[in-house]
Amino acid sequence: MSVMSGIRGNPRLGYRTHDAVVIVPGIMGSVLEESDTPGRRIWGDTAVAKSWFSGSALRRLQLTEEEQEGHYGRVKATKLLDFATWLPLFRGVERYDNLTHAILGAVADKRAVREFPYDWRLPVAYNAGLLAKDALAHLERWRASEAHDRAMRLHPTEQGPAKLVLVAHSMGGLLVRHMLLDPDVAALVRACVTLGTPFYGTPKAAALLNSGRLKSSLGIPLLPARRPASAALRRDADDGLRALAVTLPGIYDLLPTYRCLVEGDTARHLTAEDVVRLGGCPTQAKAWEKRQLPLSERPLLSDDHQLLVGSAQPTVQSLRVENGVVEQLFTTPRAKGPAVNEWGDGTVPICSAKVPKVRPAGQPIQSHSDLASADEIVSWVAEVVREGDLSTNMPYLGGDDENPFGLETPDGAVVPKEKWPAVVVGGEVPPLSAFCYVEAVGARTAWKQRFQLESRDGELRAQITLDGPGLHRVTFQPPGGGAPISQLVLAIDPCLDD
Predict the structure, then answer these.
(1) Which of 457, 465, 489, 493 is nearest to 475 (CA)?
(2) How far is the C-alpha of 228 from the C-alpha of 144, rounded, in Å?
(3) pLDDT 10s digits, 449-485
(4) Contacts of 439 (CB under 8 A, 6+ apart)
(5) How far apart are CA 239 and CA 235, in angstroms?
(6) What are phi and psi of 127, to 5 degrees?
(7) What whole-number distance in Å separates Cα of residue 116 and Cα of residue 123?
(8) pLDDT tens sequence across 221-235
């Protein structure tokens, strides 16, 4: 499929902007390496199944005591993710190559595009400072180039020299938000696009701090319960996920800041004390609360902001805590009246991705990771970058269906040879014509298997089994030609060990 196949009837199809573009990935979306050992990855490895089971990936990702004190440099972000990967609760992250390719087709020269990988474990504000420096340096280099001057001559505009266009997915939008708090930086930005950004956080971050005692939304343990004898007594085999999460400021910066903690018939905001009660670190919790205070009085977005909000996917929207254990709730509390299910993209609730007084450019029926990779979405991003007329040439983003479909898969790891459910919610389709397709991600031998969906309790369910470990993509193709919906699922062999 060509990059611009989703753009229909555009008379400016050949136009390419002379602006400079910076692509900012989401959490988990940057390859991380040890600074002292170039090439040794601690995140973005193809051996994701074994590392998650054994705990080796978790141990290497934890912040050291020096890093927790603000002394960074042990880890270096080298590039945007080049392999799909996975994190319990947050599920999977797809590669960003489709998004990058679409943007390259919308600029005057490939040197105008800059990818900004960052260490997503660290505070958003810290990474935002690095982003501002990197983006301004990129803009200065591009403006000084002969390619920029040539693009200006070919496509003269009233704008003058190039400005910045920021394209951000998920957590990357939070970096952009911090960056634009500086009016001098904001003045150099022509447009900013955010895809599935949790401006008000996600309850899954709170659940991650509680993950040592938590099961997934489908009742499946976050990591397989069975362990080889050599790993049975190791703390990092079962509780390593929580031990990792409590050290990472980046996870705390994703904690929900809206009224999400349900107590009886009411709901309230999380406090630092609540975060500690969930399993968080007291020092990190207080630092998170302090970082949020300056943001509460500042505007979230600028007038030239374009945002997409994923919709129709089963999404955790609030929490209840009983005896120190988090219960994930699929409803959004209201100030008046009962809580309602507002859905989301499977990771970010709609109530967090929307911003007051800013109308979303669209609410695609897509999962969180596909918001930065689906063909129709990256085509729309390319049109924003090239300064197309979105009032007449808006690519179809979906989201207009009266009965949209959602896809729910386990947000914890599964075990090969054991059945687990893929659930399709919403919509109306005869079960006999409904299927889920499962394929291995990154496998040397391509294969795809089809599973029949059956009607159960008003939902369509497929009982899926995987032959072996590894990362897999589950896809549901809605009838009538709608955009496919996919989720990533990790299978872990319980016999694996370091």
Answers:
(1) 489
(2) 59
(3) 999 998 877 788 999 999 888 899 999 988 776 789 9
(4) 446, 447, 448, 449, 472, 473, 475
(5) 6
(6) -65, -30
(7) 16
(8) 676 655 444 444 444
